[in-house]
Write a structure and sequence with these properties.
By secondary structure, this protein is an alpha/beta fold. The protein has 16 helices and 15 strands.
Length: 534
């Protein structure tokens, strides 16, 4: 495998949807479509392998990974195929080779049937031909709603479900006739598989559901572009090869006994044969659009996701609370300023950095973002909760450019309180039975019910309504993304004596917090000392 291939990531806006994709290489375009419920991350090795000869592009299909879902409540394979063509059009790709696995293979087949002129070739890894009884059974039992429960029990179900799928196909039928012989997951493998569903929540059913409902599978016998249907000998869909209809000469069905390596070698031959005279072109970097858009920004520590609204006059920088779900900005604002909402390193689509999100990393990222979008505009910074700790250093770097800071519910703590908070963090070590997920859930829920920087006691109790289950779940997903990076994140974000540092800043400060979120009235006291209003 090559090790020097730089795989980049970016977003493209299509209407009101944002599509996330990975890309690398040069040459004719090879588009990769993933299976359900995974995302383009599954293709990292494949992108590396083919990038020396092809422009390899792997999107997250709508509703998976970091891509927005389609507007339909229950989109079909037809809608996913149309969305794939819209994606190619948005990148300026006229013709391309298309590879799809399982659900991605069905999407590719339908696209090839409706728009054969767009494809050099179609390669499918495991073409599914479920019969009516299987479709009914899978739809009813295979895809139960994934709805967060206040007690976190949905996480236990998810852990068990992901392990079960390597023992039975379908996973929901533990009969002997459904037993399969595959290596079981390791603890980390189960965690990674579960995270694919946690990325998208109940929308995991959309891709699966589209595949099970699709009734035009026999169209594979009507394809007009060069097509290869490859069935690996260890694929759970191998028996489906016997169900294929009569195929025309341009559609070839083969069984490959050599697994993924054999598939890749076969692809080498197919792609060389079908793309040798291809004219290629694509616009893969970020492009400017009106209104809010999502994009990736290259920094020294990796690619960072931001929401951007172009504007002029002032750069308004938004920093969400560390360890919590990045806040999606309002889609409409009535000012003319440029707004940039950062998904902090380790969070959301910025989670794929490999370094710990220390204060130094945060400062470097924020400096890079400010510089990239404007090196001259005045700056206003909004920071939430523990993100307020990043502002003193950022203020020193910005100097006279910083016009105002807006602190939303800042954590104004003493040294002993910071130490207590850090002592009580959940253990991120992946547990063989998924216990780390339950621990993260309990910690996140209870930090709203108890002041999290006090030892658990009646005095630490906050007499508030229980936190919203959906928000607890969203924040737990971020904690699980952080994993072992959670502690270094909070070590540098939960700092003592922040009030004194804020008082020392020579910049207008605005403090925003409700009385119930103002621990011991410290925010009100700081507001009085700074002579500012809420």
């Amino acid at each position: 495998m090559q090790t020097d291939v730089l795989i980049k990531r970016q977003f493209v806006r299509i209407g009101n949807r944002h599509v996330h994709y990975r890309y690398a290489g040069h040459g004719p375009v090879l588009l990769l479509l993933h299976q359900s419920p995974q995302n383009s991350r599954m293709w990292l090795s494949m992108i590396e392998r083919f990038a020396s000869r092809y422009t390899v592009i792997a999107p997250d299909t709508p509703g998976f990974g970091y891509s927005d879902p389609l507007p339909d409540d229950a989109p079909g394979i037809e809608q996913f195929a149309n969305a794939t063509l819209e994606f190619a059009d948005a990148l300026g790709i006229d013709r391309f080779a298309l590879f799809g696995m399982h659900t991605g293979g069905l999407i590719g087949m339908h696209l090839a049937w409706t728009a054969p002129q767009r494809l050099h070739c179609l390669i499918v890894d495991g073409y599914a031909l479920f019969d009516d009884a299987e479709r009914a059974r899978y739809t009813d039992r295979y895809l139960p709603p994934f709805i967060p429960s206040w007690d976190g029990s949905h996480l236990r179900w998810l852990w068990s479900r992901m392990r079960e799928q390597l023992y039975f196909f379908p996973w929901c039928d533990p009969s002997a006739e459904c037993a399969i012989r595959l290596p079981p997951y390791s603890a980390q493998g189960t965690h990674d598989a579960a995270m694919d569903i946690l990325d998208v929540g109940d929308n995991y059913r959309s891709g699966y559901g589209a595949a099970f409902r699709y009734t035009q599978r026999q169209r594979v016998g009507e394809l007009r572009c060069p097509t290869w249907l490859v069935y690996r000998s260890d694929d759970v869909l191998l028996t489906h090869r016997q169900r294929l209809p009569t195929l025309p000469a341009n559609v070839i069905s083969v069984e490959d006994p050599d697994g993924v390596d054999g598939l890749h070698r076969r692809m080498d031959e197919i792609l060389q044969e079908t793309t040798s005279d291809a004219v290629h072109g694509a616009t893969l970097e970020a492009r400017d659009v009106s209104g809010w858009s999502r994009r990736m920004v290259a920094t020294s520590v990796g690619e960072i996701a931001v929401w951007l609204k172009p504007g002029e006059g002032t750069l308004v920088l938004h920093l969400h609370a560390p360890g919590q779900q990045p806040t999606r900005p309002e889609l409409q604002r009535d000012d003319e300023c440029m707004h940039v909402a950062v998904e902090l390193p380790g969070h959301g689509a910025s989670s794929e950095i490999t370094v710990a999100p220390s204060a130094a990393v945060m400062h470097g990222v924020l400096q890079a973002i400010c510089t990239q979008f404007s090196s001259t505009l005045p700056v206003v910074v909004h920071a939430h909760e523990a993100a307020c700790a990043y502002l003193p250093a950022l203020a020193r770097w910005l100097g006279v450019r910083l016009q105002q800071i807006v602190l939303h519910q800042p954590w104004l703590l003493q040294a002993a309180e910071c130490a207590t908070f850090l002592q009580q963090l959940p253990d991120p070590q992946v547990h063989a039975a998924g216990g780390h997920m339950a621990e993260a859930w309990q910690w996140e829920r209870e930090r709203h019910l108890l002041w999290p920087w006090l030892a658990p006691s009646a005095q630490a109790r906050r007499l508030l309504a229980g936190p919203g289950t959906a928000q607890v779940h969203a924040n737990v997903v971020e904690l699980l993304r952080l994993g072992q990076r959670m502690r270094p994140l909070f070590v540098d974000a939960v700092v003592p004596h922040l009030a004194e540092q804020i008082l020392a800043l020579d910049v207008p400060v605005r403090l925003i917090a409700s009385d119930e979120d103002d621990y011991e009235g410290r925010i009100a006291l700081l507001r009085t000392q700074r002579l500012v209003t809420a």
